[in-house]
Write a structure and sequence with these properties.
Helices cover 21% and strands 30% of the residues. The chain is built from four helices and 14 strands. The protein binds zinc ion (ZN).
């Protein structure tokens, strides 16, 4: 029992896979706080192990199954699977792929699954109700205070957070940021469009915020703009990040009975 992280209603809660099962290979995984992921030294933190991917018991049945699973996730999974199949193909690829998809469903899936992170976290600041309305009402237009960038992520480590503040040091003021990264794609949510926190080198789901829920477009996927594996979660000379308790890095768990190299 508890409060659903998407709709805010109290009732029995169900387990949500983040990212959804159809978008990612569901295996035994080890979850650590993102600080362990970014640290060169052993932090001594014991990993939490899940037998079948990352999941949170934080959504009501309706939000989890009807809204995400049977609706938005279908468009989201299709988009991710198409990118993955291009990346795995032996074909010579163009610098920019175009993938047919429904941006207003894909972005609702991203936001919905990020909302699912962490128990009893319905509240998301002053935009809580507004974001809920956008997620549960398919006729609502995309919130004008969000940017949702995406890029190709050809790496296996997953990174998930919805409670970080990023500061570009030359600007001084922080931005609230959410992130979901897994093979083959990363989604980076920036709240309130603070000045200086725009990344025009990446496609932005806000560009298609005016579209209807079932409108298809050719979504660009830039194969010529791929940031390094730890961007943006690792700090660098120009940026610092402060993480809350829930921010996590996720590895596939190595199998115990793997044969030694060279064994027949
Ligand atoms: Zn709900």
């Amino acid at each position: 029992m508890g409060v659903c992280n998407i709709c805010g209603e109290e009732g029995p809660l169900t387990e949500d896979h983040t990212p959804p099962k159809g978008a990612v290979r569901v295996t035994q995984v080890e979850m650590r706080h993102i600080k362990s992921l970014l640290s060169a030294e052993e932090t001594g933190e014991k990993a939490r192990v899940s037998q079948n991917g990352v999941k949170f018991r934080t959504l009501c049945k309706r939000c989890n199954n009807s809204l995400l699973g049977a609706n938005y996730d279908i468009a989201f999974n299709d988009f991710c699977q198409k990118i993955a199949s291009y990346l795995k193909s032996p074909l010579v690829l163009p610098e920019i792929l175009h993938i047919t998809g429904k941006p207003q469903k894909i972005v609702r899936s991203v936001l919905g699954h990020l909302c699912a992170m962490g128990v009893n976290r319905y509240k998301k600041g002053p935009n809580t109700e507004d974001l809920r309305n956008y997620l549960i009402d398919q006729t609502e237009t995309f919130p004008d205070y969000l940017d949702v960038y995406y890029w190709v992520y050809p790496y296996q480590t997953q990174v998930l957070f919805r409670d970080a503040a990023m500061t570009i040091l030359s600007l001084g003021h922080p931005a609230s940021v959410w992130l979901m990264k897994f093979f083959p794609v990363a989604f980076f949510v920036i709240w309130d469009k603070p000045h200086g926190y725009q990344y025009p080198q990446f496609p932005n789901m806000a560009t298609w915020g005016h579209l209807g829920i079932d409108d298809d477009i050719e979504l660009p996927v830039h194969l010529n703009v791929v940031p390094h594996e730890r961007w943006p979660e690792a700090p660098d000379d120009g940026r610092i990040l402060v993480y809350g308790q829930q921010a996590m890095g996720v590895h596939e768990k190595a199998k115990k009975n793997n044969k030694l190299p060279g064994a027949k």
